[in-house]
């Protein structure tokens, strides 16, 4: 049985959680393949808003199995709080939620290292969420990391102590003022480890292979967005993992030839959190309106998102590197009320007009080239079919579709799972 995957095509916050929730009824297994608790996948239904950070977004569907893959990094303390937040919904987490033994653990000292490293950068900081994710991935690639499977080992605490001691010496090297009580952080950490041990750990690559052999349907869920990929994003202002389609193979142990549909999620405009280049960013009333109407604040960090017009150059780039087969456009309702919309269709790059994403997109090197579209005034949030949408929005959608050369199959007109229009 083929495997489908879903990922973001911008700088994250595209609305992946909602779409996974919408699609879950079509799948037996939802598997998260990278990232950590810097993710904030928001689902809204029955008048309740849910924010998931590590747990896959299919958890509210009683018939789906949810897997945290080997490419994910887990903070046991954050994870325990996430589990506690789900207790009131009476979910059978013991049977519905499985964790790869090869997933790496975020230690308290990883978070401290993150804070020390960011503080030492001064004005050159990259906008880290300070969740310890970067240092954890550094330990993974440096072959120093501690994995979920190590919890089952008799010498787990010795392994922990050795790595934590190493981290403390590194924190001292940064020579910045970081206030912390490691004993208290460790007490909370080891209590959370005991909670983690109540769930089932699996050899996830074998589990998923057998699931495919038995005809099970699998949806791989990514976190962050393609433009934050450590290899193909706006480096160094990126995350520490591969957020693109290739990350699903390495983050779950799934062979590339098993992947069928690649669902790409994008907003009808662009947003970014933290530092880094953003060619279409707006600093005027239009940008402020997008942020206000779109409630553009990070679901995990609470940081205000920077807003701007849709960048088709960047979108086509993300579609290309991921092999996207279907597109989902989110937050079309946020653009209602604008007299004129703009879409970036190219760049003036060092005196030359280009239509591809260059190596460096810092503002001193390029200026966006825009095409304008007529706006619409209608409230989209109550609409349920494509033919109800304003003609101006239909023209906007169909232009994007023709430029990117991939069909837009879903248009979201609100945060609730019911506010989802499917196109034939």
Describe the structure.
The chain is α/β, with parallel strands linked by helices and 424 residues long. It has helices at residues 16-23, 76-86, 93-96, 108-121, 133-141, 156-174, 182-196, 204-213, 246-252, 285-293, 312-322, 391-404; strands at residues 3-8, 29-32, 41-45, 48-52, 65-68, 73-74, 97-100, 104-105, 200-202, 218-221, 259-267, 270-272, 306-308, 310-311, 326-330, 340-349, 352-354, 366-374, 408-412, 420-422. It has a ten-stranded mixed sheet with strand order 9-7-5-2-10-1-11-15-19-20, with helices on both faces. Strands 14, 16, 17 and 18 form a four-stranded mixed sheet that branches. α2 packs across α7 (182-196), α4 crosses α5 (133-141) and α4 (108-121) packs parallel to α6 (156-174). The longest helix has 19 residues, at 156-174. It starts with a strand and ends with a strand.
Radius of gyration: 21 Å
Compute the number of strand runs: 20
Class of secondary structure makeup: alpha/beta
Indicate the percent of residues in helices.
25-40%
Low-confidence stretches: none
Q: State the oligomer.
A: single chain
Mean pLDDT: 92
How many helices?
Answer: 12
The description of the largest β-sheet is: 10 strands, mixed
Strand order within the widest sheet?
9-7-5-2-10-1-11-15-19-20
Q: In what range is the share of β-strand residues?
A: 15-25%
**Span between N and C termini?**
24 Å
Shape: globular
